[in-house]
Amino acid sequence: MPTSLVSIISEQAAPNFLFIKEFYDKVDKFLFVSTEQMEKKNKTNLLCETLNVDKEKRIKTLITDEYYYQNIEKLKKLNLSPDDTYLVNLTGGTKMMSITIWQFFNTFKNVRFFYVPLGKNYYNELFNDKPVIQRDFKTCITCKEYLNIYGIRYEESNIFLNKQLANDIFNDVKAGNFDLDKFPKKKLKDNAIEHTNVQLHTRWFEEYVYYRIKKELQLSDEYIITGAKLFEINEEKQSKSFYQNDNEVDVFFIYNNRPYIIECKFSIGKEKINYTNINSILYKLSAINKRFGISAKAPIFTLSDLSTIPQNASEGLHRRATITNIYNPFFDRNTFLKNFDQELLSFVC
Q1: What is the rounded CA–CA span in Å between residue 200 and residue 191?
Q2: What is the CA radius of gyration of the chain?
Q3: Exposed/middle/buried for 12, CB within 10 Å: 0-12, 13-18, 19+?
Q4: Are the C-beta atoms of residues 48 and 39 closer than 8 Å to each other?
Q5: What is the rounded distance in angstroms from the CA atom of residue 186 to the CA atom of residue 168?
Q6: What is the CATH number assigned to the segment(s) 146-348?
Q7: Range with the lowest mean pLDDT among 137-141, 167-171, 190-194, 341-345?
Q8: What digits encode the pLDDT tens for the residues 54-99?
Q9: What's the distance, CA 176 to chain centroid?
Q10: Could you tell me where the DSSP H helices lie in 132-162?
């Protein structure tokens, strides 16, 4: 018998994407339960286009997030076959929407219910009469796919440095005690590397972090990008030339199906830490982070020595980071010198 996969559309697009991609080859029809608010944001189309779901395989119905009885009646009007198999993902939408979908499909004889926890690399199958079964995802979401489902176009900058040169410059910077005035600009220029729009030390540090993360987490090109200019997808303006990029991301990567946004700062204050600068960075990072879904993690990487910050000031910065939804916010010079590998693995696990 035919199999249909049921998704509840919401702001958090990644769980639906991963679940559909996991079962895509086993499904004949895709039923999307959405709301007017989500459709104004084009959420269903972004999901379907990224997954290449054929239009003839799509069924979409709009319900409200408040009225249980009216929603049940609307679902009945779909005249779904009682003999088909239904894979129902309860992750999206409001609690009332999830309850509605559960109650409606629980009357079908061939139905399986699932839930995808946010930020996790597994999904749960739910049962009425036995414990939950947890299964790891076999599928992965790429950087391009992730940005697409959240309505973000991007333009990736060219990488100027090779890995060896980036590492050599780190050793030079370390030998110069991380003093910006001693940054080896000549080495970059000797290698015919110049960038008129970005200072050389800024571009170097972004690419050094890119190479370091890529190596430690063994990421392929699909799962990490650097120097990405972000553009909001606008159906009326298909070309990016119609509007300016509204944000930039220094390093963006996906690990175990979770997104990470890295803000790279060679220095946060020349002679002492500039707290105003840190606050500005936190608010900028928070604004970018909101566009990537609530499971995104966004730390600051810097070669400044943050151990010099007094304890009360450090606690204040961490509180401010938490308020702006930035957790585990800082990797500083000491991390790069001592235990970067362990700290990175701890951060992404």
Answers
A1: 12
A2: 23
A3: buried
A4: no
A5: 13
A6: 3.40.1350.10
A7: 190-194
A8: 999 999 999 987 788 899 999 999 999 999 999 999 999 888 899 9
A9: 36
A10: 143-149
Listed by start position, the domains of the chain span 3-139, 146-348
Q: Are 329 and 347 in contact (CB under 8 A)?
A: no
Digit-coded pLDDT (tens) for 257-281? 999 999 999 988 777 887 778 888 8
Residue 312's H or E segment, with its range, is: helix 311-323
If phi over 0 gives left and psi between -120 and 50 gives alpha, with beta otherwise, what is residue 137?
beta
Say how far apart CA 302 and CA 283 lie, in whole Å.
16
**Percent of the chain at pLDDT above 70?**
92
The per-residue pLDDT for range 221-236, each reduced to its tens digit, is 999 999 999 887 654 4
pLDDT digits (tens, 9 = 90+) for 172-187: 999 999 998 899 887 7
DSSP state letters, 187-240? HHHHTT---SSS-HHHHHHHHHHHHHHHHHHT--GGGEEEEEEEEE--TT--SG
Tokens describing residue 139 = 């599928």
- CATH number corresponding to 3-139: 3.40.50.10770
Report residue 194's pLDDT band, with 50, 70 and 90 as the boundaries: low
| Residue pair 38/64 in contact by the 8 Å Cβ criterion | no
List, as own/partner pairs, every contact residues 52-60 make where C-beta atoms lie below 8 angstroms and the sequence separation is at least 24, other chains included: 53/20, 57/27, 57/28, 57/29, 57/30, 58/29, 58/30, 58/32, 59/4, 59/29, 59/30, 59/31, 59/32, 60/31, 60/32, 60/33, 60/34
Chain centroid to Cα 210, Å, comes to: 16
CA distance 306 to 324: 19
Distance CA 314, CA 297 (A): 20
Place of tokens 């990490």: 224
Q: How far apart are CA 308 and CA 288, in angstroms?
A: 28
